[in-house]
Amino acid sequence: MKMRNLAVVSLLFCAVALSGCRRTAAIKPNEAFGVYDTEADWNDSQKLVKLGYPESQGKRIFYQYCVWCHADASPAGPSNRSNLSPAPPLLNDGEKLNGESDEFMQNIITLGGSAMGKSPMMPPYGKTLSAAEIKAVIAFTRAIAQPPYQRPGRPGSQYATKQ
Amino acid sequence: MPAEDMGKLSYRTRLTFAVATVVCVLVLAISPIKDFRSEWKHYKRSFVRFAQGRPDTKKLLADYNSNIDQVWLPGMNVVDRCTTCHQGMMQPTLTDASVPQPFRSHPPIPHNVRDWGCTICHRGQGPATEVAEAHETTLAWEQPILPAHYLQAACGSCHHADLNETPQLARGRELLTRLNCQACHKLSDVAKPMLGPDLSSVGYKVSRAWIYKWLKEPRTVLDKDGNVTVNGYENGDESRMPKFRLKDEEIVALSAFLSAQKAKPIESYKISPAVVAAWSKKPDLLPQAEVRFRQMMCTTCHPLAVTRAGEIKLIGGNIGPELTKVGSKVNEEWLVAWLRNPQGYLAHNNMPRYGWSDEDLYKVSQYVMNKLTDSDLLTTVPKLEPPTDEQIKNGKRIFLEKGCASCHGLEGVTPQRDFGPDLTALGAKNASELEFGKAKIQRNLLSYVQAKLQDPVAVNPAARMPQYIWKTDDLDAVTTALLSQTGPKATSALQQLVVPKTDVTYQAVGEFAEVYERYKCYACHRFNGYGGTLAPDLSFEGSRAQKKWIADFLKNPQTIRPTLILRMPQFNMTDKEAAIAADYLAMAVQKPDVNPEGVDARQFTPAMVTMGKQLYEVKYQCQSCHTIGSAGGYVGPNLNNAGNWLTPAWTEAWLRNPQALQPDTIEPRRSLTEDEIRALTAYLMTLRAGIKPQASASLANGHANGQGAGR
Q1: Which of A19, A23, A27 to mutate to test binding with chain B, by most B CBs within 10 Å of its CB?
Q2: Contact present, B365 and B330 (Cβ < 8 Å)
Q3: What is the pLDDT of residues A66-77, one digit of tens each?
Q4: Which of B193, B509, B592, B699 could be a cystine partner for B182, CB 3.0 to 4.6 Å?
Q5: Cβ-defined contact of A35 to B95 (cutoff 8 Å)
Q6: Who's near B264: CB < 8 A, 6+ residues apart?
Q7: Does the pLDDT of residue B286 top 60, yes or no?
Q8: What are the pLDDT digits (tens) for B192-244?
Q9: pLDDT tens for each residue of A118-128
Q10: Among all residues of chain B, which has the CA nearest to that of A26?
Q11: Which residue of A has its CA nearest to B561?
Q12: Which residue of B has its CA nearest to A153?
């Protein structure tokens, strides 16, 4: 029958045309794609903390300038932390640092301890490190904090914002 | 058909037309539907929905349009449409990890997307508007996006000089140098290769059994926990000689050939019989010898395994070879000759020529030959018959076949150059240009490079490349450095962006040149950008230190930094050599704007000193990092002898701005007034301590690495 032939031809035509609409296969998530750098969790060396670009820059600056007093071991071996009183917080000490705002952290690193009512043994780094470098160190602090750091979000907002 | 029916269409015809029309409309509708459903439009629409869910909607949608966005930079071959989907790229408020991709903003970096596009750094396909085409390897496009973990390779393809921000790339380049990859491969902008030892006279140095053992079993192994060990000890560093896939008869032949290499006789030295007679009978010879060995600070350059709290670990620097079992390796006559004059055996090597007394030479050589040994080292070596001419001939053939002469010099053998393929454009290769063999890996460049490094025969059974053993971090670092070798740029505009590496060298002049060469100052210290990084940079030493202090220090190096266990060895310089070096350092290596005579210490008053002490102890609390007396921190140098050590002019300039004198120093720059600077300097100049004899250096401190605190 002519009618049937027509229907078959048009269906085939449709099928061919529609095949162009096939969605391309989605890319498989590759973990390495999104991880710029990692840092072993200070309390559990088996666990790796994922770091983005700013956090990894913070890690580099931390291990050059801050590690001497804010960690229990330094690249040269012993830590200077035991010589200081009051003892400076370990960088991953979430109980002490999670409560402090980014603004406070930025200020105490920039202006030093005495300007912020803390130990004058913390020197000011505002003339040695740039504001962006100090921000990066804070980002690194937040990334390795134990207990983990929760960014203060706006209540009711789907996406926490930080201006 | 009757004529009156000509104008009328039958039911059937009309039906046919109707169906055909519907089909036609349907087909025509496919195109707009397909367009509407395209991936990029989907992301465009979701960005609007995302922005509407946020308080800053207006700001986020200020630049919104529903078309494809692109960055077009004609000179740089950039047509990047990435921002079509990655719409928050330049929105400062979308930095947080809670922002879903692809809308998150780019982290702050020195380059702006508008001026650089995306693919110059990230690779991938810029003009693509589909997720898979843009990011992955497809048939049409073979360069997938560079995974974030290896992204520093992109920095390195333009920045041939190292950047602070790219430590992984810098480590990779350092490894390419340390592992001497350039001996076989051509690489661009990697520092000059460090060759393996010249083997022309190796027959005098080690036994054939030791050579057999060395070739048979690699010193470096990966244990079951994934730790790299050298001679069974965990090592923070990499070993340099890789393992070649050699058959037993090849090792027999090679060891025969090498043990017959005796081009230049040893400069034999006979230690005074009186010294030998006096010491060889003493029951405490070896304990005494050990003390002397430690005092000589050999571990500043050479790593050594020690037992600390029941745990064996490697301590010491990484400039020279590891010495834990060296007593079972070398022959004693060779050792004595080597210690007296290392350059007599190997013309180009960085071991200083110490001024030895016979007593020290005897003690140290006895310690090395009797204590740094392992009686089991050679027990697995089969009995080797005296070498036959046939074996020696075969050994030479294998030596050349395996490319040994790429790294090792040998008298009568032409050095082998470009034994392996040119890798200067490896990072720009497409997957189709690579030989994957039967390896079951992803068909892309990254997988290829990693597979080849881990096991060269996996991708090519005929590979001549030897087997290296990698820690994961080092493998990733070397991969990054190799991927950064992208060859010449595609356009001249891009080529102009390349920041070349400048080669620096430092030539000492006058009488000092001899002292500088004899004691190899540059192996540890840096002069105007040239030299090692283990010890302080001496580029401005003449402005910093007082001449008398330099001369005293060279004669008897004191440790200035309390935490360091890697210290300057005592070279037993003569008074004349110390004076020449002090003269040169004080006069020739100065910071032009810090005149050592610029501040007169006589103008300091007791009132200034009192004020300075107050500032030091109370206002600025310098003791948190510096030690005076026995109290204080140990981040910065000990200041006990600051008055004899530092020049007042340097101290003032340093307090004003430490980074101006030493850019990477960790001492922060403070806001001191000129009066405060003067007062602190006055106080520091009153701190004086007599030079005490060097206390016996102890290895009790188990921390291996003293680098870093030296800044």
Answers
A1: A27
A2: no
A3: 999 999 887 767
A4: B193
A5: no
A6: B200, B201, B345
A7: yes
A8: 666 788 999 999 999 999 899 888 876 655 444 545 555 545 554 556 778 88
A9: 898 999 999 99
A10: B132
A11: A76
A12: B98
Look at B24 and B231; give whichever has higher pLDDT.
Answer: B24
Give yes or no for residue A140 having a pLDDT over 50: yes
In a domain, A22, yes or no: no
Total domains present in chain A? 1
State the CATH number of the domain containing residue A63. 1.10.760.10
Q: Provide the b/e sequence for B320-356 (b: ≥16 CB within 10 Å).
A: bbbbbbbbbbbeebbbbbbbbebbebbeebbbbbbeb
Tell me if A3 and B705 make a contact (CB, 8 A cut-off).
Answer: no
Residue A49 lies inside a defined structural domain of this protein: yes
Which stretches within A20-163 are classed as H helix?
Answer: 31-34, 53-61, 67-70, 94-97, 102-111, 131-144
Q: Which positions in chain B touch A69 (Cβ < 8 Å)?
A: 624, 633, 635
DSSP-derived letter for residue B563 is: T
Domain of A111, in residue numbers? 31-144
A76 in contact with chain B, both atoms CB, cutoff 8 A: yes
8 Å CB contact between B257 and B399: yes
- State whether B23 and A14 contact (CB < 8 Å): yes
Distance from C-alpha of B298 to C-alpha of B319, rounded to nearest angstrom: 11
Please give the pLDDT value at position B415: 85
Say which of B37, B145, B151 has its CB closest to residue A36. B151
- The ipTM estimated for the assembled molecules is 0.84
CB pairs under 8 A between A and B: 159
Q: What is the mean pLDDT of residues B44-54?
A: 90
Both structure tokens of B534 = 């283990």
Judge whether residue A158 has pLDDT over 50. Answer: no
| Nearest residue, CB atoms, B703 vs list A17, A76, A83 | A76
pLDDT band at B544 (very low <50, low <70, confident <90, very high): very high
Spatial contact of B164 and A136, defined as CB atoms under 8 Å apart: no
Q: Are β-strands B526-527 and B311-315 bridged in parallel, bridged antiparallel, or unpaired? A: unpaired
Task: Give the bridge partners for A130, in sequence order.
Answer: none
Please provide the DSSP assignment of A108-122 as one string.
HHHH-TGGGTS-TTS
Strands A37-41 and B526-527: unpaired
Q: Say yes or no for a CB contact (<8 Å) between A21 and B37.
A: yes
DSSP-derived pairing of the beta strands B311-315 and B304-308: antiparallel
Whether B670 and A6 lie within 8 Å, measured CB to CB: no
- Min CA distance, B505 vs chain A (Å)? 26
Residue A23 domain-assigned (yes or no)? no
| Contact at CB, A161 and B96, closer than 8 angstroms | yes
Q: Are A24 and B624 an interchain contact pair (Cβ–Cβ within 8 Å)?
A: no
Alpha-carbon span B18 to B37, nearest angstrom: 28
The whole-angstrom distance between residue B553's C-alpha and the CA centroid of its chain comes to 30
Contact list, B666 vs chain A (CB under 8 Å):
64-65, 68
Residue with tokens 């960085």: B350
Contact residues, A window 17-36, toward B, CB-based 8 Å cutoff: 17-18, 20-21, 24-27, 30, 32-36
pLDDT of B129 over the 90 cut: no
Q: Residue B230 pairs with which residues in a beta bridge? A: B220, B233
> Is residue A32 over pLDDT 60?
no
Token readout for B411 is 């008298």
Closest CA in chain B for residue A31: B147
The two tokens of residue B474 are 């080092």
Whether A43 contacts chain B with CB within 8 A: no
Interface test with B, best of A16, A38, A83, A134 (most B CBs within 10 A): A83
Which chain B positions have a beta carbon within 8 Å of A158's beta carbon? 53-54
Give me chain B's average pLDDT, please. 85
